[in-house]
Amino acid sequence: MIGVWAAVKAVGEHGVRKLSDKASGESSAEDGFSDKECEKDQAVEKDSTAEKGSMASMCEKDGAADASMGDIRLRGYRSHVLGTACVWGIGVVGVLWMCFLGVWTADYYGALPGRRHGVAYSLSLNSDYLELATFLILWAICFVLLVALFMVKRRIRNYFRVQTAAGSGQYVCVERRLRSVKMLGDRSSWVQRRVNGVADALVAALGHDREYTTCAVRQTTQGRRFFTYQCTRYVYDARTQRYAPFAFSVGGSHAALVAQAGGLSTDEAARRLELVGPNFIAVHVAGVARAFAREFSSFFYIYQLIFLWAYYFYAYYQVGLVDTGVILVSAGIKVALRMQSERRLKRMAEQAETVDVLRDGRWARVSTVELVPGDVVGVAAGAHMSCDCVLLAGAAVMDESSLTGEPLPVRKIGLADSGSSGDTPYDDAGGGGKASTLYAGTVVAQTHGGRQAPDGLASQSWAVALVRRTGTQSDKGQLVRQMLFPHPVRFVFDEQMRIVVAVLVAYCVFVAGWATYLYQGSSVAVAFYMLFLMSQACSPLLPASMVIGQSVAAARLRRKQIYCVDPQRIMTAGKVQVFCFDKTGTLTRPGLDFYGVQPCSISDGSAVMAPMVHSVDDAPLLLRMAVAACHAVTDLAGAPVGNPVDVEQFRASGARIEPHSPFVDTICLPHASHAPHTLHVVRRFEFAHARASMCVALLDAATQQLHVFVKGSFERIRAVCRPESLPADYDHVCAALAREGCYVLAVAHKTVPASPAEICALSQDAVEEGCAFAGLLVFRNMLKPDAASAVAELKRGATRAVMVTGDTALTGVFVARACNMVPAGCRVILGESPTPAGPVRWTDVDSGRPVDDLDAALRESLDEHGFPRVELAVGGAAFLHLCATGQIDRLLLHIRVFARMRPADKVACVQLHMRHAITAMCGDGGNDCGALRAAHVGLALSDAEASIVAPFSSADRSVGACVELLRECRAGLATSFANFAALICYGQVMSGMLKMASFYFAISLTQNLWMLIDGAVATGLALTIALAGPAKRLAAHRPTARILGPQMLAAVGGTVLINWLFAALAYVWLFAQPWFRCNEHSSAEVDLNKWWLLGDNYEASVISFISAFQFINNGFLFNYGYVHRAPWYRNYCLLVVWAFLITFVSYMLLADPNRVGCAFRLNCGSEDVLVDLGYKRPAWSIEPYNSPLGHNVFPRASRWAFWGYCVGNMLATNLWQLLVVNGPVRSILRRKRPLNRLKLKL
């Protein structure tokens, strides 16, 4: 049937493949089509000529999930009756084959219904050999079929469809190249490189280096074909014969945006909705059944389950059931964690409510799902923004904590009130446009109607905004899309796992060969033993071992109000080497304290700095007016809201904002001796990072005089002011205040002989031109109480702390010294440049003397670790110059303070550090969100429970959250590796000496003992190991992330060798006992089909007891907290489980024959034999022993001797861990033979 389909498929696809490949290749070179080309389908209103749409890729923004069209290949497919029948046929054959295996298994036990019931081997003519051989053949075919289906599962369904051109298919298969992000990288060995090469070649040959997603093609009401891929609509363009996402540009300047205040027509909105799709990001959370199906589709589970079928068949079903339970528990843990994360993301992503929209010139109530770029919407208090909008008129106070982590409400103003000229480019990334942008995912706390709203919109009670981006094109959509569809992350242990798997396979082959050599009997029985060996080499708990530590760490972090939205980052956070900090609101308190005003006065015709006054009432009137009105503060329920510096400034003025004003704002400035001074803000230019300043034009109600005030950084105001108005010691005074840790803003002023209407027509540069210096506003940067201790703890934990701030370099240096980021007495050299073009001038911060030879200064004084006793600080322009000239690479790890950094500069700084080390970023949101998103690990100090911008957020807003994050994540990483090591030891004990003894002596453990080991010991200890808490302090080094590193090899290899040695010597001890009688047997004559009768002898008892103690002890060994986890004696759950298991096994060994020991057929015997040995006849039934002695009871003295021997085995492995792996031997080797790792000055 499949052969017939292959012929039908070849005929149906004749000539299509080559054409499709060519079209797919060309699609990456074409950007798309413009909206004008769609006008032939439907007319566009003439007044919307500023709007342009284009088919574009979704990677205009940062985001790991964004894929360019060059990474995507689209193939069309259509269904075929024969192909569908083949798919169903494969499914039916697979089910029938599994049923056939089930029938054959039931026949093995004589459990078939009807006349065959009770008759074993009835289907194989009562031949046990034929029964086993047939099952092996059926099992092998099933195994090969499942493996083959796994390898082609991504493409098998489309193989049974007919490939067509993408534009005519019923389905589109999106092939996207997977670009793995490698984290925790290390220098690869020769072996690792070769193994990686082979593995990557195999992955590419199987097509697993690409992601295949088949999407159903649908049609809109207008007949336009589209499909949805990664929550983004791809629309078909008949002209270019390609699918691509459609993006509208609603204008690039303020004038173009304001010109669209009339909204869209209903027809135009419907057309745009067809092109961009609904404004809704649907997050599908699979049901429990589908989630388990997705989990079990991985190769590891297929491997385990197919081998467990052999357990069910070969009279081993009890152990098979236990192992199946272990697998289900393991899978259940992973499924529960994944579903919990998906539900949390669904709550954050999905949002729909109704909003007022201007359509056809009338306001209508419409669902936010139907919003499209170009819509004009009313913004009301309490609304949740579902798309990125530009505020056209009015003002709004926004809560952006869930998106950016910014804890305080942010004031937004309409473009009509922003004061910008019409041709001003609109830039919402870092320019002035950000002050007018309402982002999706934020909440409207308050709105005010627009003063200059166009087209009569001022009459509305809400603010008015223009929809700019919807769905996954919005900032929130990009972040959600990145979280939903991340690139695969590869850690160093993922690569080294390939070597581990190769070693385990080689080991299994060796042991299987040994078994074949020793067993000369039934070949099919030997085959079954080899199957058991291969399945036991890899514990079914291995997939969950690396997840349990993450989940426990995430739960502990949550209890400490540190929330995690990306559990995979916990592993990365455990290896952080560099921690970057914002200053204001992160290292220092969120709000600055107003310190005083330092006016400028005229003396002998020259400008001089007057003494500082700490009360605004004592300042000159002009400065009082500036303090009261030169800000962007608004009133929210009687409380001032805005930038924390502006709020503190406004509070210090004692002024109040009138609630209703015909102007931008009306400020009432109190006066002690006469009526309040009323100031009308007729124009305001919001603060822009690019200009580092803001500007207001005030109308004095008493004098009707227009005043212009410019406030900004003292560097910016120096450039704005007339040179003769600046005091000679201007730079010196500002630098001195900055050295004292003050936040310094300068103010310039001028009066304007113009009317308010005239000044509203001027550009910002024209308004600011010709100002005179008026004075300084000084604020205090107060350090958070725990900042110094947190930085000291990070340094103790071998983590370098770096400051990345928008403040001045001198203030940054002061704060860095105050929190001990810069050691006491350390020389600091500051690099500054007037422009990014350079040059950079280096000066000593304390003496002010220039440093001509920076390299010599870095070499002249070294500490005991070989690092210079000099710290560097750079300004924003100097940083850009160093980046442009390539000097930043050699100086980066010497720079402690990065100052005057704009949001884009912060991102670049973090990314530079990421080239050298695992880098974390901590900030309070706002202008830090880009850096938080870019870093390996981002921690937002935000009140929001889940800030999308960073994988971690702390509601505590304490710098100590950084320390807690590293403590818990290091403990989680160490726990994951401890579990991994314990399970590897489990596999080696199981498939190592235990199997060797079983093969050599033709013995086996009993069924109940297998169930105890697999069910209670392995599972119980694996779960309780994860409960170890974090260490109280950060260790001087990070936990290992290499499963083939010296620590893991020593821990696992040493333990395995010691266990093997003690197991071998146990037989030497046994053979020397006078009471011992060898279990005489012939390997060729032993009936291995009845393996459960092979444990009734001393040889089996010895290996049973010593392996049981070894299994139990392995979990305890790797519980040692060392330096990243709490001491072993604090893990009470593990101690209870360990003590119970040790007591249980010890009781079986030391006690006289009893019900417990006889249930495990250890230290017991046939009833009559026990009576002959002097014991009471058991009151319970005992199946007769299968040995000449009829018992395996040790003499009492020998029991204690052997118990002491087992305890000695446990003691030896514990001493190995305490003295060698985690103790003085490791410390000595670490000092004498340090690993070649990145060395950082802390």
Quick recap of the structure?
The protein has 1242 residues and is an alpha+beta fold.
Give an overview of the whole structure.
The chain is α+β, with helices and mostly antiparallel strands and 1242 residues long. The protein is 43% helix and 18% strand. It has a ten-stranded mixed sheet with strand order 21-41-40-39-22-34-38-37-35-36, sandwiched between helices. A hairpin with a 2-residue loop joins strand 8 and strand 9. Helix 6 (190-205) crosses helix 14. The longest helix is centred in the N-terminal third of the chain and has 33 residues, at 317-349. The chain is globular, with a radius of gyration of 37 Å. The two termini are 69 Å apart. The relative contact order is 0.07. Residues 23-68 and 451-460 have low confidence and may be disordered.
Spatial strand arrangement across the major sheet: 21-41-40-39-22-34-38-37-35-36
In DSSP terms (H or I, runs of 4 or more residues), the helix count works out at: 41
Percentage of residues assigned to helices: 40-55%
- Estimate the strand proportion: 15-25%
Gyration radius from CA atoms, angstroms: 37 Å
Global morphology: globular
Biggest sheet architecture: 10 strands, mixed
Overall pLDDT level = 82
Descriptive labels:
1242 residues, alpha+beta, ten-stranded mixed β-sheet, nine-stranded antiparallel β-sheet, 43% helix, 18% strand, globular
